[in-house]
Amino acid sequence: MKQFFSSKNGVVLPLVVILTLIMLILGMTILSIGKFERIGTGRRTQQVQALYLAEAGAYRAYALLSGGTTPSWYGVAQTLGSGTYIVQEDEDGHIVSTGTRGNIHQTVRLELQRSGGGISIFSDGIFGSTSVTITGSSEIHGYNSIDNSVQNAEASSNSLISIPTSGKIFGNAGVATGGSITYPQWAPDAISGQKTYNNDAKTLAPVTIPSSLQSMSYTPYGDSKIDATLGNYQIINNNFSMNIWPRIISFNPGDYKFNNFSLTSDDMLSLKGTIRIYLTGNFSMFNNSRLIFTPGATLEIYLGQNSNFTLSNSSKINQNGSPANLAIYSASTNTINMNGTGNAEINGVVYAPMAEVTVANSTSLRGGVVANNVAVTGNARIYYDTALSSLSVPGDPGSGGGGGVITILRWTKPSWEARL
Length: 420
Known about the structure:
By secondary structure, the chain is of the alpha/beta class. It has helices spanning 2-66, 211-215, 416-419; strands at 78-80, 83-89, 95-101, 104-114, 126-134, 139-144, 149-151, 153-157, 160-162, 168-169, 171-176, 180-182, 195-199, 226-227, 234-236, 239-241, 248-251, 254-258, 261-263, 268-271, 274-279, 283-285, 290-293, 298-303, 309-311, 316-317, 326-330, 336-338, 345-359, 364-376, 381-385, 406-412.
């Protein structure tokens, strides 16, 4: 009997040890599965939260754009709850929003459709079809005229963006495929934002002078639309000037046609309502002359095929008004010169598809420029107005202006496999 029990105990003990090991392995496996399940559940939760953050950022940007305001926080991380989101517009004007929770990122794209048949020709920043050149200590900045917030500038070209010396772009620069962006090796911060080399090339349509302006007679002296109660003006051989003191008059709403248009020596011309001016000759402003926009006034200036445009000394156009109130359209190949030496200022947009636009010396331009070449020289400043993508610009050849209703065309979101 003792031998039997001793033999039996010798068999039972190893079985107990084996069973114990099996139970330990099973327990550890169950614990590991639970741990991985908790990790997986946490990751799935963070993915969903990151997606919701991305969607919240996109909806917030859409709400502001629908109200006519470009978000001032584009490209800057915004905190919401325990995560963040970053929203930007892509080159097509659509919203791209990335939400982040922990180390998980989710991105959504909100494609928009703006009424008016397209997007404003001035919505893509400072554009030179052949080149954008920034020399001296000149700079291109970005801002929003609606809320005066600082924004990233946008500068682009089909072929070349060049900063040969100490110029700067406080924002993004882009060229079409095959184009180049050049700046000194010793100035890596010459362009503070992104540099892209694969933009779609753009073809600029020629300026079409409205037929009603072409066919109208030259505006005569004594025209009822001109209010000279407070001052004097002259129209001689279809050339407009103000050479006799006091030099202050007003243009009331309507269309005007002159050969040359010249303001100088503290001339002050006030504009009221909606005004269009067609010049078959030249436009010039010198010596602290001013074009003053009364509230609600808009001005379209059309330059004929042989016209020149000169803004010099400390002259000012629409000094405190929205850039969307002034549009200059040139059908000429002659350079548009804004070369003020005494802080000349202009708030407006320029469209000169066959010409160079030169902003030089200490001139300040707030608005937008679309031209064959854009040259910013000396100590000049261009402040691109990002609000132009949503504001209505008179005579805009792109879409007839921004504004209108912005609707959601489609969402692009992560697949459920990526999300879960």
